[in-house]
Amino acid sequence: MRIVADRNIPFVQEAFGPLGEVVTVSAPALDAAAVQDADLVLVRSTVKVDAALLSGSRARFVATATIGTDHLDTAWLAERGIAWASAPGSNADSVAQWWAGALLTLAERRRTGLRGATIGIVGVGNVGSRVERLAAAFGCRVLRCDPPRARAEGGDFVALDDLLPACDVVTLHVPLARGGSDPTFRLLDAARLERLRPSATLVNCSRGAVLHEAAAVKARAAGHLGALLLDVFEGEPEVAPATVAACDLATPHIAGHSLDGKANGTRMIHEAACRFLGVAPKWSPRTALGPKPTRSVALDTRGLDDETVALSVLRRFYRVEEDDAALRRIARLPDGKRGKAFGEYRASYPPRRELHGLRVQMAPARPFAGAMLEALGAVIEDRG
Fold first, then answer.
1. What is the pLDDT of residues 116-156, one digit of tens each?
2. Residues 96, 97, 100, 105: is their CA dihedral positive or negative?
């Protein structure tokens, strides 16, 4: 059996090697010729899977090691009887860690606090539910907007147009859908951006086209938007320099790029392929990942506020400002070179670990900072 895979899927040889011959290629080279003799095709979000790619292939199974599926033509796959799988929630903890780092870094720069702020979460799925826990741990009031969940569950959900003017922070965590009962393409357009408070912070780490990017840039320039934090962009990989300049923090679609999250995605598509083939999965990323670079931290918290304490721990694993600086360098490149640099940065992204299981001691104890770190997966050991 021949398995053709994006070479940027971590541990793909180790996971899929026992199932057949694994051929890895770069995403730009993953074209119709590359998959012609493939039985299984494994991709990430930069490869469009449709008739143009697979109509001449013998592929029987396609998997994307990502949470999003808007790059898969699932209707065409179903018509052709080609099974497919994705990795929903695989990197949700990674995105939540990015979110915490971005909001805490912005608060540090502005010398403001998050406690007491109202945070509106648009899309309360795998990522949004983690953001909800973080926001609660940060001492924030949370408003939730999720029409599919509201219809299915009832309960405490708010309509989008009611949520927008009520929030200090609005954060987007929806899939990209251009049709259906809940379209999200340019969900926040110029009219909805006008409903935001002029001081509001807008965060998008879902899909670029969920936000009308040009309208957001215009609102930021006019002073009708307090802050803009973006990890995703409408024109990827050709990111608009004006958009990057308008952002307080901008990163090149790497919120979900922790090594833990990517390895979890490989595990999920490996298990899906094994189910399709009728064999028992035997690979786990647990041993492949190895130990984390930092396993415990002891902090002297005297004279520090709680958010500074939490951010100092988080920065031992991830510094959002480094990715922000990298994207600003990319944005300064001439037309025609930004897209390549954007893709290369993501393809060669250094290993980034999540802080789950990190043991933290604080003296004196800081229950609020401890709650924030526990929401990120740390274990708090009280030193008094």
1. 999 999 999 999 999 999 999 999 999 999 999 999 999 89
2. negative
Rg of the chain over Cα atoms, rounded to whole angstroms, equals 21
Digit-coded pLDDT (tens) for 239-290:
999 999 999 999 999 999 999 999 999 999 999 999 999 999 999 888 788 8
Angle of CA points 176, 134, 186, to nearest 5°: 20
- Going by C-alpha positions, the residue among 11, 19, 71, 13 that lies closest to residue 40 is 19
Catalytic-role residue among 130, 207, 212, 270: 207
Question: Which is catalytic among the residues 132, 234, 236, 307?
Answer: 236
253 has catalytic annotation: yes
> Does residue 194 carry a catalytic annotation?
no
Q: Is 212 a catalytic residue?
A: no
Confidence of residue 375 (pLDDT cuts 50, 70, 90): very high
pTM: 0.91
Q: How many residues does the chain have?
A: 384
Marked catalytic residue, from 130, 212, 220, 253: 253
Q: Could you give the 3-state DSSP secondary structure of residue 49?
A: strand
User: Number of C-alpha atoms within 13 angstroms, CB side, residue 65?
Assistant: 28
- Which of 3, 9, 88, 67 shows the shortest CA–CA distance to 259? 9
Specify burial of residue 379 (Cβ count, 10 A radius: 0-12, 13-18, 19+): middle
- Strand 2-6 and strand 21-25: pairing? parallel
SS3 281: coil
